[in-house]
């Protein structure tokens, strides 16, 4: 169980809009993270502070592994929608860079013989409140 507060759509959008005004150069921007990527070596884990989660812990059902791509995007696309009820967002924490305040989504991808920390910059323009219907 996570001790992080659950961020609903309104809370995520509000955070993203406030962080979207950050324009300073920072160590966290050394590697482009507009789409999902493995946590780069240039971004120390300690530079990120978890401030909330998109994992709806009050749900009795396991979060879906279905992705949301109504316009034909893919998991790796920089313009893929950020749909918190869909994978991988429904398993992600929201983290803030301790240096500049930018927001990132993080989750642990795992399967078979690997574990990978994945990260994506939060872009408020891409956040959608897509219902979980038809998952």
Query: N-to-C terminal Cα separation, in Å?
Result: 24 Å
Percent helix: under 10%
Shape: globular
How many strands, what sense, and barrel or not for the largest sheet? Answer: 5 strands, antiparallel
Count of runs of 4 or more consecutive helical residues: 1
Strand content: 15-25%
Q: Which runs of at least 5 residues are low in confidence (pLDDT < 50)?
A: none
- How many beta-strand elements? 5
Query: What's the Cα radius of gyration?
Result: 14 Å
Mean pLDDT: 92
Order of helices and strands: HEEEEE
Strand order of the largest sheet: 1-5-4-3-2
Structural class: mainly beta
Core attributes:
1 helix, 135 residues, 22% strand, mainly beta, single chain, 5-stranded antiparallel beta sheet
């Amino acid at each position: 169980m996570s001790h992080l507060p659950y961020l609903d759509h309104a809370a995520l959008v509000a955070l993203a809009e406030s962080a979207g005004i950050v324009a300073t150069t920072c160590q966290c921007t050394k590697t482009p993270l507009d789409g999902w990527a493995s946590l780069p070596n240039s971004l120390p884990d300690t530079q990120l502070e978890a401030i909330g989660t998109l994992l709806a812990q009050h749900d009795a059902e396991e979060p879906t592994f279905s992705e949301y791509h109504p316009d034909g995007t893919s998991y790796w696309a920089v313009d893929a929608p950020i749909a918190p009820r869909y994978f991988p967002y429904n398993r992600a924490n929201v983290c803030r860079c301790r240096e500049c305040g930018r927001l990132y989504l993080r989750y642990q991808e795992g399967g078979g013989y690997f574990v990978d920390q994945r990260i994506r910059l939060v872009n408020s323009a891409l956040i959608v409140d897509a219902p979980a219907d038809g998952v």
